[in-house]
Write a structure and sequence with these properties.
It is a single chain. The protein is an alpha+beta fold and 280 residues long. It has a domain of 174 residues. Helix content is 46%, strand content 15%. The protein contains 2 helices and 11 strands; from the N terminus they run αββαβββββββββ. Strands 3, 4, 5, 6, 9, 10 and 11 form a 7-stranded mixed sheet that branches. It has a two-stranded antiparallel ribbon with strand order 1-2. Helix 1 packs antiparallel against helix 2. The longest helix is centred in the N-terminal third of the chain and has 115 residues. It is elongated.
């Protein structure tokens, strides 16, 4: 019995061993074939994914191009709207700087004109035929028919005009002057019981001057022409002073800023000069 069982076992064992070997080989084949199939499947999936991806994103790319073109058009439109506004602001800023500069120059010219009256001899009057402004002394050009005739006026008036015209020569092309009488006399600031009053022109004074000055003097016949009485300086009696006034409109239409500046400011300057304490 034992021998028979042993023989059967020895007879069966090769068959079982073959099946076992076959199973091992099939497992090996599966191991070797499995990754290949997976690779083929993965490669196929990748290829199909790329193919579908290109087709699927084509409309998206077209939409992106249309959006990019729309953004470019919007940027051009915004630039076209912003640039004129920026240029308008820059022009008005430059115009404001010009106005400040001209106003400072006008103030300086008026103050110098009032002070220059005391450079002239006291109670001196111009002789017949004397002209100024324009002339070589203040404007670098010869006298013309529009020059101011200062015959019979205090010499201090002519000094004041020459100083004023010479100082304002550079800004003269931008200004439209509000002309008035060159030389005046009298006037009172008022105060207390005194009523304010305005100065009156000298009889021979030209009426087309850019600057107007109140100058007191005494002529050869002893006629007294008082200056402007400012009662705020030595109340209540006051002091006689020299005053000068000038007014003009700043015209930007004469400049390249005309297209963006639509306003024309009026500039005014007033100055007073006291007689120097150590003078004659």
């Amino acid at each position: 019995m034992h021998d028979t069982a042993a023989g059967n076992a020895s007879a069966i064992s090769p068959v079982l061993r073959g099946f076992a070997d076959g199973d091992g080989e099939s497992d090996g084949l599966r191991r070797r074939a499995g990754p290949a199939r997976l690779r083929r499947r993965r490669v196929g999936r990748r290829a199909s994914h790329r193919f579908h991806r290109d087709d699927a994103h084509a409309p998206v790319r077209a939409v992106r191009r249309r959006r990019r073109r729309g953004s470019d058009a919007q940027a051009v439109l915004e630039t076209a709207l912003v640039i004129p506004i920026m240029l308008l602001l820059v022009c008005n800023f430059i115009a404001l700087m010009i106005q400040v500069s001209v106003q400072v120059q006008l103030d300086s010219a008026t103050a110098l004109a009032a002070a220059s009256r005391f450079q002239a001899p006291t109670n001196a009057f111009d002789s017949a035929g004397v002209r100024c402004c324009p002339d070589p002394r203040c404007c670098g050009v010869v006298s013309t028919s529009v020059s101011l005739d200062t015959s019979g006026l205090p010499t201090g008036c002519r000094y004041a005009a020459e100083t004023f015209y010479g100082t304002m020569q550079r800004a003269n092309s931008l200004l439209t002057w509000h002309t008035a009488a060159l030389c005046l006399t009298g006037g009172d600031s008022g105060g207390g019981t005194a009523n304010p009053s305005t100065a009156v022109p000298y009889a021979p004074s030209p009426r087309n001057s850019d600057v107007s000055c109140v100058v007191g003097s005494v002529d050869a016949r002893g006629t007294v022409y008082p200056g402007f009485l400012d009662r705020t300086l030595n109340p209540p009696a006051g002091l006689f002073v020299v005053t000068c006034d000038a007014s003009a409109t700043l015209d930007f239409s004469r400049t390249p800023l005309a297209w963006g500046v639509f306003w024309s400011p009026t500039l005014h300057a007033h100055a007073e000069a006291l007689p120097p304490p150590f003078r004659q």
